[in-house]
Amino acid sequence: MDLDLVGGKLPTREEAQAIAMDFLREAAPDLLPALSISWIDAHD
């Protein structure tokens, strides 16, 4: 992990989902039709 990120603010659930969806649209758009989100939760 980049030490510049230590102690930084984490994205909200909505922001994390948007980031993940943007990544999938770019990296693996063929997976989107079968995508099913079970849950997104912050952790320590």
Report on this model:
- The protein has one helix spanning 13-27.
- By secondary structure, it is mainly alpha-helical.
- It starts with 12 loop residues before the first helix and ends in a 17-residue tail after the last helix.
Radius of gyration: 13 Å
Oligomeric assembly: single chain
The helix/strand class is: mainly alpha
Number of helices: 1
Shape, principal axes of CA atoms: extended
Q: Topology as H/E string?
A: H
Query: How far apart are the first and last residues' alpha carbons, in Å?
Result: 15 Å
| Fraction of residues in β-strands | under 5%
Low-confidence stretches: none
Q: How many β strands by DSSP?
A: 0
Mean pLDDT: 85
Largest sheet: none
Give the gist of this structure.
With about 45 residues, this protein is mostly helical. It has one helix and no strands.
Keywords:
mainly alpha, 44 residues, 1 helix, extended
Write the layout of secondary structure elements.
Elements: H1 13-27
